[in-house]
Design a protein that fits this description.
By secondary structure, the protein is an alpha+beta fold. The chain has one domain: Nuclear Transport Factor 2, Chain: A. Helix content is about 25%, strand content about 40%. It contains three helices and six strands. Strands 2-1-6-5-4-3 form a six-stranded mixed sheet, covered by helices on one side. A hairpin with a 5-residue loop joins strand 1 and strand 2.
Amino acid sequence: MSASVDPVPSHRAIENLIARYAELVDDGDFAGLGVLLADAVFVGGGGPVRGGEAIEAMFRDTIVVYADGTPRTQHVTSNVAVEVDEPAGTATARSYVTVLQALPGLPLQAVAAGRYHDRFARGKDGRWRFVERRVRITLVGDVSRHLRR
């Protein structure tokens, strides 16, 4: 491990990555998602998508964005369980996600809920990064104003 190890404890650094993902989606910052997931494989409703550019394009092609530049959503991540193998520099996390959305003519409501299963690795610079995000949506509401079909 290099001398520039992230001073944030591993569990907290991984929780911060999980939170950052939600912020970027809700901000409509798909380029930022591409950077965050640059070294990762994203597995969702379609086939696996690998690498930052492909993941950014997938989000742009899938999520509806409104005049304010956002999807008008709030991703709430809860029940986060992180397991770290410090010597190996790897970690896994499991969490729940609930996606809320509100628009003119659409009252605040949960439009989807499910689980995230994530894998992480510590880079040579000592910082944690996503290696894989698996999304399994188990409850689906009215996503007609959130997802392109």
